[in-house]
Known about the structure:
Layout (H helix, E strand, L loop, with lengths): L1 H17 L9 H10 L2 H7 L10 H18 L6 H11 L8 H21 L2 H13 L5 H13 L5 H12 L4 H5 L2 H11 L10 H15 L6 H14 L4 H12 L8 H13 L3 H12 L14 H14 L1 H15 L14 H10 L3 H14 L2
Amino acid sequence: MRFFYVLFSSFLLWGLCVNSWCKELYELKDLEILESQKSFDEFFEHARDIRPSKRDDYWKKMLDNMAEAYSLLLTQEQVKQASLEKLNDLLQWPELKTNEFFRINRQKAGLKYFSNCYRTVDAQTCSKQLFDFWRQDTSLYDFGIQLGKLAQKNDSIELELLWELYKEGLQHESSAFYCKEEHVRSLAEFFLLNLRKEYSVNPACEKVLRDFFAKKVSSARDPWPIRKRYLDYLIIKEKSGSEQDFYLALFLLSNPAPQKGAQLNKAWTLFERLHKDPVRREKLLEKLRLLDPLPDAIFSIESVEKRKAFANLIYDSFPEYIDLYAKTCLDYLKGKNKFPNGTPCLNSRSFFEELRKRKDNKSQQLAADYEKTTNL
């Protein structure tokens, strides 16, 4: 009986040792040797052999040195997935969460890994790993932007996830620098034009985008749905003044299929008020005069009745624009002045057709001049 008891005890002790109960514990002097040899795997495996009460500043300094050296080494060589996972494991150590050098080197190694990943592995797998890697440490905004640009370049991540990567950077006071970059700007533009509060950006970034929007809406050759989004945003942001007049006028003049809505109502009201305010009309005309081509989609409305109604509104309330548009079109057709962008009047034919229907002498004269010039 005693024999079986001894045998059972031996098996029990053997099982405990297999489960690391009997593993050899390293001491500080052992870790010192591993640090001097840069034996990273063994060092990290045994660094916590030191009892918590003995993990003093000296031990912490050794850990910092090894974590920094290991992460720096990975920035200088090809990073494998196992190494990336090791960096994530180390990041969970409370002692390393505040080590800036380790965290920055971890990010550099991550960028190196994912740049190679997109070249060698399917993009969706890389993007999932990329987002998971970033989620481990989201405190450094510029890293999120760098990862976002990499994922966006490979067109392999959902827009909502891209926003998560970019958000901290776009809301930071240094955001203007990033918002000038094409990839960042295009994403910020997409979300900002949704006019939802959760997609806010820093005012510095918003100014960069608004300047960009202003240039975009000045080209009538852009598709109307895109221009409308820009204009909706700019109209909402501009509460009053000449800029508000400009965007509302551009909204109406550029609209090929006006539908009832708040913006259209504002634009219509503006034109009604322009009728009694020549100074306001002149300020607006100066801004519209700079556009090439001139906004004229309103003259191409398919509905005859609607086209007539809008044409009459503009003619009666803002005759200066009618004069500007007619003269510019005729100058182009007669070869006067230079028009490097081609025709400045994309819908001149329908415009002059509407003039021909009016009975006043001025409209008839302009329509006749157009017919004579074009031999129609």
